Amino acid sequence: MAKFDYFVVFAEMRTGSNFLEANLNAMQGVTCYGEAFNPHFIGYPNQQDILGVTQAQRENNPKKLINHIKRSDGIGGFRYFHDHDPRILDQLLSDPKCAKIILTRNPVDSYVSWKIAQATGQWKLTNVKNAKSDTALFDEAEFERHMTALQDFQVTLLNALQRSGQTAFYIAYEDLQDVEVMNGLAAYLGVEARLASLDKTLKKQNPEPIEAKVSNFDAMERALARLDRFNLTRTPNFEPRRGAVIPQYVAPAQSPILYMPIKGGPEARVVTWLAELDGAEVQTGFNHRTLRDWKAAHPGNRSFTVVRHPVLRAHAAFCDHILGYDDNVFYEIRRTLTQVFKIALPEEVPPGPAYDDAAHRAAFLAFLAFAKANVSAQTSVRIDPAWASQAAIVAGFSQNAAPDVIFREDHLAADLAWLMSGVGRADTPAWPGSHCPHSDRLARIYDAEIEKAAQEAYQRDYITFGFCDWSAA
After folding, report:
1. Nearest of 151, 142, 269, 136 to residue 213 by alpha carbon
2. Element spanning 10, H or E
3. What does the pLDDT look like over 154-180, one tens digit per residue?
4. Exposed/middle/buried for 72, CB within 10 Å: 0-12, 13-18, 19+?
5. Which of 33, 105, 168, 220 sits CB 3.0–4.6 Å from 100 for a disulfide?
């Protein structure tokens, strides 16, 4: 009787998962089907199906693809990253007949490799003559977000295995060059095949020492020295949980208040107001230690966040990140919305004058239907903070410390004055008022149908924060 029905390689970008897959596929009776549950393609970019299951069929029923893989010849499996279809994760982790392979890499190395691949556009190398080189620019806040995502996912895997009494085959990036480790993996999977040598198709990219690959290496060293060194170990068991949003918190130069932003709200205007408050640049990019230091240096401090009406916020996210009126366009999600969810989006990014209000209304209504399924974890697309429910984001704050007060955008003038009076400040700048650049267009298309769709998508926000219809806001 077979030891396992199928396998999953839990990995991340730039951890060596392509090389691991190549060697798995070199074993007779073993087939790895790529990123089978990547929300933006199936298996590999430009591939149409896996074992006859198309991307659209997988979207409608992800378990169907797992069943096809389980019934394939030999033992089949796939690679799964932290941002792949969340609907199947519980099934994978709870199934003792699913072999778990956990591939890890030092997060500094994977981050630098990812930055270079972004810069060069080269994600695989099969011929060294075609190698492209560049250097990475280290961004402390971006790196902390990168490391937090890796650590949180590793903790999720570890705890699930502990609770179900299972074990996994852990393999580090450095182990990939050891043929005996690969053959040990074959034994773990229960297959008789063994490798005489490793696959030579894929070549090591960027073999230089790390100081030669980072343009601001000194700044990186200083930044890493401020972090808990244990967070950089490749052993996943001891990597601590971290709040993912602390680097985005904002404080004025001197006043003892802390702003905890919610994406899709009036962030830029609040930050500008905080800078005017003390007439100096704001502080941001906190981590757990520096946030504790700030709180200790500001006794009596108060923290706040600001919520926006769900219709206005969802519309802003749709305009900025899907239609492309903001610099940060989610091109992969946009493509998935068009191909899988059949939302009629204009080809031009951002849209040209031919894109009228009627087309905009239809596309936004379709986006709200997608958002309803997405925030309910019924799609394979990530729940981006720009349109995640504000109630869920505020609950996430509580993993570190909940905000003292939650303000609504339409009452900020009075609320900020009240907040500052509580810390002894009466000479505060006037709140200039919020203005969403897309509110006029929303007003032109808004009606009861849009309101109903928004309430269905964000019922939790309406109930939690007491929002009325947008027309009455």
Report:
1. 136
2. strand 6-10
3. 989 999 999 999 999 999 988 898 999
4. middle
5. 168
Single-letter amino acid, residue 363: A
The one-letter amino acid at 227:
L
Question: Full-prediction pTM beyond 0.70?
Answer: yes
* Residue found by looking up tokens 């962030």 in the block: 267
Query: Is 1.10.287.3510 the CATH classification of the domain at 6-213?
Result: no
- The SS3 assignment for 333 reads helix
Closest CA to 78 of 38, 133, 126: 38
Q: What is the DSSP string of 147-178?
A: HHHHHHHHHHHHHHHHHHT---EEEEGGGGG-
Within a 10 A sphere around the Cβ of 93, how many other Cβ atoms? Answer: 20
Length of the chain: 473
**């967070």: which residue's tokens?**
231
Residue type, 125: L
- Are the C-beta atoms of residues 80 and 21 closer than 8 Å to each other? no
d(CA 317, CA 315): 5
Give the CA-trace dihedral at 386, 407, 440, 317, to 10 degrees. Answer: 0
> How many Cα atoms within 13 Å fall on the side-chain side of residue 63?
5
pLDDT of residue 203: 52
The answer, yes or no, to whether residue 124 has pLDDT greater than 80, is no
**H or E, element range at 30:** strand 30-32
Residues 379, 370 contacting (CB under 8 angstroms): yes
Stretch 37-46: mean pLDDT = 95
CB 203 within 8 A of CB 128: yes
Domains in the chain: boundaries: 6-213
State the angle between helix axes of 310-317 and 357-375 in degrees (0 to 180), rounded to the nearest 10.
100
Q: Contact 291/248 with Cβ under 8 angstroms?
A: no
Between CA 428 and CA 383 the distance in angstroms is 37
3-state secondary structure 59-82: HHCHHHHHHHHHCCCCEEEEEECC
- In tens, the pLDDT along 372-413 reads 988 887 888 988 999 999 988 888 888 788 899 999 998 899
